[in-house]
Amino acid sequence: MISSYLKLALRLLARSPLMSLINVLGLAAGFTVFFVLWPYTRHELASEQFIRDYDRIVRFGIVWNQLNKNDEWSSDVMATSHPGVAHTIGSEFTEVESFTRVFYQQNFTRAGMPHGKDFTAAVINTTGEKVLFQGEHFAYADPNVFSFFGLPLVSGDPEQVLAEPGSLVVSEDFALRHFGHGSPIGRQLFIHDTVVFHITGVFKNLPANTHMKLEAVASDMLIRKKIDVTPFTAEAHTYFRLRTGTDRLALEKRLNGFNTQHWEPVVRESGYNTSRVKLSSYLQPLQDIPFSKFSGDHHFAKSRDTLRFLNVVPLIILAMAWINYVNLIMASHGKRIKELITRKNAGARPLDFIRQFALESLLINVIACLLAVVFIKLFRYPLQVYLHFYVPSPADIPVQTALVMTAMLVTGIFAPAAYAALVTLNRTPHALMTSVKWKNNETVLGKTLVVFQYTSAIVLVVYAFAVYRQLDAVLNSSMGIDRRDVVVIDAPANASRKDLDFFVRQCETFAGVEQLTTSTHITGDDAWSVVVFWKESDSRAFLAHSTGGVDAGFIPFYGIELVAGRNFSATGIGDSSAIIVSEAMVEFLGLSDAAQAVGKTLSVWTRRGEEKQDATIVGVIRSFQEKTLFRHVEADQDRDALGHSRIILTYGSALTGFQRHKISLRIPHKNLDSTLAGLETSYRELFPGKLFRWSFLEDHMNRHYSYEKVTRNQIIVFTVLAIFIACLGLLGAIDNKALQKQREVVIRKVYGASMVDVSGMLMLSTARHMTLSVVLGIPLAIYPVRQYLAKFAPGFSFGWWHYAIPVLILIVILLATVSSVLLNAARKNPVDVLRHN
């Protein structure tokens, strides 16, 4: 019996090769998307949940609250805190079971570490060769960090690997990259040839769904004598494991009382007006960290809303593929009506029909699944490289995710079969014959499925268009500076001022270098804040962003407009306590215009020590974007209404004490290769043993949007697949309709119907479905579009035409898909068609 059903199913596949191909390709595309995107989004939404006791671990942070110019409280949320706080809280609050601290590389300071955050590291590889590389994903941490998080080690004891000063634990990738397949245990790592670490362990590579991007972790025993120097170091990420049953919010409230008791005196002694500045604490659940970004965070913040949207996309696309399958099955009944009537009259039982349709569905779905597996194997590498999809092996898929995927597969096989069987069983042989004669008899369910399919495609197309347009506007934004042909060279941060100045003079001699300037930081770096006191406003304190020190060429080099006052002098004479501020700063100070700010005095916490230094405003510049264009609401209180940051420019190292080791050069593209080769030669002669690192400023600035670019690519790819499936469905439907109505078409042609008339007749129901889908789809797309746009700073609008354009594009694509079918239907010779009727 089964073999008979199988033979019939194979004959049906061969009878209509176009319909079979449409079914298989549509389902294969749907299964491919589902098998790739569903595990990925579930994995991302479960960020940090691989960590032991993740639901009891929180991160402690500080909120800097201050009164603004309108006497309204604003806040700056800091992900970091003073390192000593962990010991105090751990001993005074019984709700805390244990704690650990991590000092991530981006937060390194020369005051607390034997090196800065930019450093050159070296190892002696297995061949005895000294290999230099730029230090990345490095951190200091408490010795218990691996046991605290339950991070598995390949080599070493979690309790002992970081017990000694100078001990270092590296990742599997780090060990393989620098030491091959040999053991790295006992080998050394050098930083600037002065700081030596001994590798004592290897930890398993961390998964992608964590905010901790680590390749090397050193024991903080080496730096403990330095990190407790000031209450406002604020460079440690502090994690607490709470005891079972602890109320996090209640503990947070108690901690804020602790702040009032312990920190207000320190704040007052440091010169802050405690009536205008308050410190509060927060405890952030570990699993929420990857989806937020506060001051001191340097991971790419994921969007829960976007991931939830992407989590629905595979279900929508798979549903679209099944809708195509169901509609084409029902349409094909007209071709096999004699078979169905004969079997029904011969006494076929309901179970016989169910078995037949189930086997046909199983055959189609199995072929589609196998083809989907082939697609995944073929495109696994580009999926990982360009879309950042890590396709897990079956053994790595969580049980819950595997159960959902299995349930969806079973549903896809039996639901369409059950529907087709029920439609057949619920009709008498006479009704089945009538359904052939009245070809325009469409069920409500069939219409609903088609409208759902087109509506889903419209929502995806509108959302993809919004993401593409928004990110394109962000990437092409000037940020308020001239970044044309700018190359940035990172000189050694520990080089002497004399050597740096000599190298700068050498750079100026190259004919390919049109302009250059030096600074401690550049736009695109992780923003660096300074504490500023406004004496004329009751010693109001606030945070501002600084480049850490610039030269006199910085403003003209980047094309920044000087609104009032003057630039720094070329020699720097008289500018040791001079600052230039942005218009956003002037507005924040409550001054009426830029000229009024010139000559005002601010006190700046220099971070060279514990003293504040008075600085005089000598100029005001047009505001530009020092930070990214993301809108992180909790940490955006330092921006004006247009998203511009409050910026302070200082001269050289006068206030900050930091070297200007970022050298920005304007090099036309035609001179790029030869000029860079000459610069590298000069660099290596002056800084032997140091890496020559350079980057395009545009790439450096846009790296903050790499996660967004990947998300954009993901959405576009799956939107294209959704359109592909919708086109397949429409192609199959119109082809079936053209076949069913071919007699009516040729009769109309005999009576003078034009090609437009014929096309209109065949597309009438589709036009109705599409119109209803547009009415439903655009309102449904508005919410996810607005949620996405809300991630960015103000200044980007999205008008009604941005909803209309993608819909028109989709309609044009759909019409182009069926144009050949419509053309063939309209061109058929009436004699050839009617000859067989």
TrEMBL record:
Keyword Lyase: no
ABC3 transporter permease C-terminal domain segment(s): 312-419, 716-830
Main location: membrane
UniProt keywords, alphabetically: Cell membrane, Membrane, Transmembrane, Transmembrane helix
Subcellular location: Cell membrane
GO CC annotations on file: plasma membrane
One MF annotation (Gene Ontology) recorded for this entry: transmembrane transporter activity
Sequence ranges assigned to domain MacB-like periplasmic core in this UniProt record: 20-255, 458-626
Keyword Membrane in record: yes
Membrane spanning stretches: 21-40, 309-332, 353-379, 399-423, 444-468, 715-734, 755-783, 803-826
Membrane topology: Multi-pass membrane protein
Pfam families: FtsX, MacB_PCD
Name of this protein: ABC transporter permease
Organism: Chryseosolibacter histidini
